[in-house]
Amino acid sequence: MTIDRKIRVFISSKCGGYYTIVRKTLQAMLEESGFCDVYAFETDYSLSCPVVSAYLDELADSDVIIVFVENKDGVTDPVQSEINRARE
User: Fold this and answer.
1) Phi/psi at 32 (nearest 5 deg)?
2) pTM score, whole prediction
3) Which of 30, 31, 45, 50 is deepest in the core (most CB within 10 A)?
4) In this predicted structure, what is the pLDDT of residue 41?
5) Residue 61 has pLDDT above 60, yes or no
6) CA 55 to CA 18: how far, in whole Å?
7) Mean pLDDT, the chain, as a whole number?
8) How many CB atoms lie within 10 A of CB 2?
9) Cross-strand bridge partners of residue 67
10) What is the pLDDT of residue 43?
11) How far apart are CA 57 and CA 80, in angstroms?
12) Residue pair 59/38 in contact by the 8 Å Cβ criterion
């Protein structure tokens, strides 16, 4: 069996603080496996359209979404919009 493309993974969470460490570490681990291409917003420097449209388009093209939420922080509006889009 031949694999035509890698699995596309979208990492979602609040940005900043320890979330940055978790996101970068997970992205590196997944990409190192060779099975995944990973999208994390903070590593996308080529935005040529509105920010929200850019990351929601990336989400639509993804096969898997991983969402990190710390109970004490709750779900931010951007993360909720990503969850909603993933459910669609």
Assistant:
1) -65, -30
2) 0.79
3) 30
4) 72
5) yes
6) 21
7) 83
8) 3
9) 12
10) 58
11) 15
12) no
